[in-house]
Amino acid sequence: MAIEVRASGAIAAEALAQHGELADLPGAVVPCDTCGQPTTMLGTRRCDPCWEVEKRLRDYLKSRNGRVRALDLMAKIHASELLDGGKLDTEGA
């Protein structure tokens, strides 16, 4: 599977030729596998916010209050998708 990587031209080409690994490319950027935003995290292929959520979500959902809050946010997202195409303001939520 080919991975598209954007890095500064000569540096990226030289690093790839010398090391043959994406992790050694200075300034390389790939899309986050979850949200698609650019990220320099080549190993996890997750941007910082997605990594944080995915890493911590299981522990968060262990508590009843965490589950209730997550379900409430998911319900708001569903309602938002129906009303305005999925734009959800989660600030202060």
Describe the structure.
This protein has three helices and two strands, in the order αββαα. It is mainly alpha-helical and 93 residues long. It has a domain of 46 residues. A two-stranded antiparallel sheet has the order 1-2. The protein starts with 8 loop residues before the first helix and ends in a 9-residue tail after the last helix.
Characterize this entry briefly.
48% of the residues lie in helices and 4% in strands. Strand 1 and strand 2 form a beta hairpin.
How would you summarize the topology of this molecule?
Layout: H1 9-19, E1 30-31, E2 38-39, H2 48-60, H3 64-84
Antiparallel strand pairs: 1-2
Strand content: under 5%
Which residue ranges are poorly predicted, with pLDDT under 50 across at least 5 consecutive positions?
7-13
Query: Element order, helices and strands?
Result: HEEHH
- Radius of gyration, in Å, reads 18 Å
Q: Which outline best applies?
A: flat
Question: What composes the largest sheet?
Answer: 2 strands, antiparallel
Distance between the termini: 39 Å
